[in-house]
Amino acid sequence: MTDEPVTLDEVWRVRNAAAVTLGLCEDQMRRAVRTASVDQLTGLIETFAPGRSTGPDWTRTFEPLVERLWAWCDDASMAALEACLASPGGQETAAHAFAISSGGSPILLVGEEQTFTF
Description:
By secondary structure, the protein is mostly helical. It has one domain (about 10-100). It is built from five helices and no strands.
């Protein structure tokens, strides 16, 4: 970094380049999330754990990630999630998450289990 003044035009060009890059990155991330396994998604989310954070800014990156993961879910997955949370087991799980939360709303990670019998 230098102390030389920059023009508004220069800053605006950098801002536009960053916006394009962010858009490309989000598109790649959306495609990767749609093909990721539950274990891969769990691993991604675990990297945002507050205990691994160096400070309170982890929410600035975690909350937008969760919002995007939510938005990128297809309609069938959202309907299945709604049915799961409406079931007695889903209600019990959500109530337990709120009961043990030590502050703020809990984050529920929902996965799909598939069993193969050979």
